[in-house]
Write a structure and sequence with these properties.
By secondary structure, the protein is of the alpha/beta class. It is about 35% helix and about 10% strand. The chain contains 19 helices and 12 strands. Strand 1, helix 1 and strand 2 form a beta-alpha-beta unit. The radius of gyration is 23 Å and the shape is globular.
Length: about 500
């Protein structure tokens, strides 16, 4: 089904880069720009121009929801909302949506809720009284009501309790007693309005950027985590869909057993779904989630696809991932509901890690393209699916992902035996890393090839995005424009022409 989409009818290539990894040229930040993360401002448009000049047609990124203190895109406080940190303040200032005088002088965060407060929201309302922008705002709130009402209230209450997890809130709020909810909506109206404004700003900027990208022949490839964070608006507002105890704490949590990335497994801490409750109403929670993602992206990766066939269930009171067990999930019924609701749903399955025949059978039943990573290929096993001679046309080929080292960092870390395998397999080519692996990905029979930006920039392991199983210095990498060689676009374009992937 999914590989019948237009994205898999021809050979394409793209880049993996999270928007936070863009440079920040926002004039508002002044001398602090070099310490800022990327936004949806002019640097995002420059990046699209670079992709178009290079002939690349896919921009893949990580989840774009609001993050928590650890900045992990995979532990968002919402399955629907956009991350306010990505909002371009320059864009808002240029349009008069906010006033420079309302911004706090310390410039600690781009998030409008910490920057502008209700002053800017009401200035926005006053400035746009009676015009189309205000009507657009009201329409947005109405159209996104299915998730935005609960999310804005969740954020306001969370701020009121100084960031405390919802499971520690007073029982009336924790259990969503209607009288208490109605009262606090009135009490916290100013904070709720700010969140509504933030999300309107995010979605407006995002859809403007997406339209620009599509006009340039670039398509946005999103990432949808299979699980959501426990301390999220989704779990708080719809607790019956999750395995929780009476206090709201997870009875079981997600993770994976020991694998390539960790000898002790990974303990993610996300609460597991109450799949029976979800199936009872036809998986409406998931269909609503897909509705939002399809507004934002042209193509969607489902992270940890294997969890739809069976998921690793760790006791909620344990922090040892090795104590988990595999539990069957209703993957066939779930995917059937998704494709019935959204025919031609453009999904890609992340099928890395411990993958069984049952998982692959489920993926193939729905014709979902899978992922193959060249850094995993050279273990001496000629049947290794990641080796290019085992690729198929429906595979999406990567040199590495956000969880891998950069290709140059990987090359510098592997032993001589593995290096020899790579060189022998690649005909003892004189091409240096990372371009040797980049060319191997582009030459693959797989219809789509995705290259991390770090590899195009020839960066070593100091520039990797994430190291699974650790919490130090992840998700903070950014590149700078002076790292982009003037000849890079032409070099990429020439390779895409050779391998018939030119956009």
């Amino acid at each position: 089904m999914a590989d019948k989409s237009p994205f898999f009818q021809r050979r394409t290539a793209g880049v993996l880069l999270h928007p936070t990894s863009l440079p920040c040229s926002e004039s508002y930040w002044g001398d602090n720009r070099k310490n800022r993360f990327g936004t949806l401002g002019k640097d995002a448009y420059y990046f699209i121009d670079l992709l178009a000049k290079s002939g690349l047609t896919i921009w893949q990124m990580l989840p774009t929801g609001p993050t928590q203190a650890d900045m992990s895109p995979y532990q968002s406080i919402s399955a629907h909302a956009g991350n306010p940190e990505l909002i371009s303040l320059d864009w808002l200032l240029e349009r008069g949506w906010i006033k420079a005088g309302d911004l706090l002088a310390n410039r600690e965060s781009t998030a409008l809720v910490r920057q502008t407060g209700a002053l800017s929201f009401y200035a926005f309302i006053d400035t746009n009284e009676g015009n189309q922008t205000l009507q657009d705002f009201q329409n947005f709130c109405s159209q996104q009501k299915y998730w935005l009402d609960d999310f804005s209230l969740f954020c306001a209450i969370r701020k009121h309790y100084e960031g405390a997890s919802w499971s520690s809130w007073p029982i009336e709020l924790r259990q969503r007693h209607q009288k208490t909810i109605d009262e606090i909506r009135i009490e916290l109206k100013d904070d709720i309005d700010v969140v509504l404004f933030e999300q309107f700003a995010f979605f407006t900027q995002w859809l403007s950027l997406k339209n620009y990208a599509n006009q340039k022949g670039i398509y946005l490839f999103g990432d949808m985590p299979i699980f959501v964070g426990h301390d999220s608006a989704d779990v708080w507002s719809q607790q019956h869909y999750f395995q929780l105890d009476e206090e709201g704490n997870p009875l079981t949590v997600a993770g994976v057993p020991p694998d390539y990335f960790s000898e002790t497994g990974q303990h993610w801490g996300n609460p597991h779904y109450a799949w029976q409750a979800m199936a009872k109403d036809g998986f409406q929670w998931w269909l609503a989630r897909l509705r939002t993602q399809l507004q934002l992206f042209d193509l969607i990766r489902i992270d940890h696809f294997r969890g739809f066939e069976a998921y690793w269930e760790i006791p909620g009171n344990s922090h040892d991932a090795r104590l988990g067990k595999w539990v069957k999930a209703p993957g066939e019924a779930f995917l059937t509901a998704c494709f019935n609701a959204y025919p031609g749903l453009p999904l890609v399955a992340e099928n890395l890690g411990v993958i069984t025949e049952e998982v692959e059978a489920l993926r193939n039943q729905f014709d979902l393209p899978g992922m193959l990573v060249l850094q995993f290929a050279f273990d001496g096993n000629t049947n290794n699916p990641h080796l290019p001679h085992n690729h198929t046309r429906s595979d999406v080929i990567y040199t590495g992902t956000h969880d891998n080292d950069t290709t140059l960092g990987w090359w510098e870390s592997i032993n001589d035996a593995n290096r020899n395998r790579v060189q022998e397999y690649c005909f003892h080519s004189d091409e240096k890393m990372p371009w040797l692996l980049i060319e191997s990905a582009l030459a693959s029979v797989g219809r789509m090839a995705i290259i991390p930006m770090q590899d195009f920039l020839e960066l070593d392991g100091r520039h990797r995005m994430n190291m699974p199983g650790t919490t130090d210095k992840n998700w903070v990498w950014t590149f700078s424009w002076d790292q982009v060689e003037p000849a890079l676009a032409d070099r990429i374009r020439q390779l895409l022409a050779i391998y018939h992937r030119l956009g």
